[in-house]
Amino acid sequence: MRPKVFVSQPIPEPALDMLREVAEVTVFPRLDRNMSEDEWIMAAQRADYLFVMGGNIITTNVIKANPKLKGIAMVHRRLPVNNSIDLDTAKALGVPVVFQYPWEPVYDRIAEATCDLTIAMILDLAYRLIDADRYTRSGRTLQEHTMALMGPGVTGKIAGLLGLGKVALKMVPRLRALRMSVLYTKRTRLAPAQERELGVEWADQSDILRRSDFVCLEYDYNPSTHKMIGEREFALMKPTAYFINTARGRIVDEPALVRALQNRTIAGAGLDVFWHEPPGSPEMAPSEEFFKMDNVILAPHNGGATWDARTELTKATARQIVTLIGGGRPEGLVLD
What region holds the D-isomer specific 2-hydroxyacid dehydrogenase catalytic domain (predicted)? Predict the structure, then answer.
C-alpha cells in the first residue's frame, strides 16, 4: 500500500509530481487562508507524511493526532526559535521532522523574487500605478495628463536600505539602473573599495531616514531589531518619503506606522509583512486601518511568489519526503 502525503496548500505541479511517484497525495485546496488546528488534526489522522508550507503551525495536538505519523517536512529553514512546530513533542513521539536544507540555494531564488517585489513597490508608489488603475477602471470620464495621478518618480531620488543582506544587495544594481542614489546601513560597514564598486554610500539609520525618498527595511528580525522602527523613526522621514517593508513585520511598531500614514507624516508605504502573521500569530491579519488607506500597497508576505522560486522551494521539500519514504536520511533531518 502506497504511503499517504498531505500537502498544506496548492503548490507547483513539478513538486507534486515528485511526490505522486512514491505516494498518494492529498492537497488542501484553499488559496485564501492557512489551515486551522482542527483541519490539521483531521489531515494528520489520515496521512503518513505532512508537507507543511510557511504560515502553518504544527501543534502538539496535530502531532499527537496520529500515533503512526512517519514524518513532517517544513518548507522553511530551521531557526534558533521555531514556533511553527512543536519539536519537543515530535522528538518524544519519534516523528522525524525535516527542514529545508541546504537553505542557501533555495533562498537565493526567494531573495531574487523578494528583491524584485520591493523594486516593484517602489515603482508602484513612485508612479501611482494602483491609483492609475483604479482611476481608469472607475467608469468616470478620463482626463489625459490629469494632475490627479502625479507621483515623485524615481530618477534622481534617494533609496535608503536599512540592512544590506542578500535581498538588499540584489536591489542595489536595480536601483542604480533606475538612476537612484543608494544609501545603506548595516552592523559592519563595507570596505571603501566595495562601496565604490557597488555605488553605495554608508550612512547611519537616522541619516538614512532623514535623507531618503524611499526607505526600504531589510534588517533581519531578532531581539535587537524588535520594534526598531517606530514613532521617532517615522518622524525623521520627509513627509514626501515612502516606507517599504519586505523584511519582517515585528521590526516595526505597527500602530506607529498606522499613525504616520494617517497623519501624513510620511507619504505612503508598501508592506509585504505585518505584525500579526504566523508563527507569531495564528493567522495573517494586517491592521484593518491599512485597508482604509489609499497611500498603502499591501501584499500577503508573498515575496517568493514566482514560479521559479516557489517550484524550487517545494521540489526541495518534496525530495526530503521522498528520501524519508525510501528509508533514507534527509539532509534536513532534525537530530537534536
Answer: 5-334
Could you confirm whether 76 is annotated as catalytic? no
Catalytic residue, candidates 277, 310, 312, 319: 277
Q: Are 87 and 93 in contact (CB under 8 A)?
A: no
Q: Are residues 294 and 184 in the same domain?
A: yes
Q: Which of 301, 310, 312, 319 is catalytic?
A: 301
From 248, 250, 310, 319, active-site residue: 248
Question: Per residue in 181-195, pLDDT tens?
Answer: 999 999 999 999 999
Q: What percent of the chain has pLDDT over 90?
A: 90
Determine, yes or no, domain membership for 333. no
- Looking at residue 77, the DSSP 8-state letter turns out to be P
Beta strands in 163-226 (DSSP E): 181-185, 201-202, 214-217
Total number of domains in the chain: 2
Q: Which residues contact 163 (CB under 8 A, 6 or more apart)?
A: 184, 185, 186, 217, 218, 219, 220, 247
pTM here is 0.93
pLDDT (mean) for 63-89: 90
- CATH code where residue 33 lies: 3.40.50.720
| Predicted confidence band of residue 80 (pLDDT cuts 50, 70, 90) | low
Polymer length in residues for the chain: 336
Work out the angle between the directed axes of helices 166-177 and 104-127 (0-180°, nearest 10): 40
Domain carrying residue 83: 4-103+308-325
Provide φ and ψ at 24, rounded to 5°: -85, 130
232 noted as active-site residue: no
Active site residue 248: yes
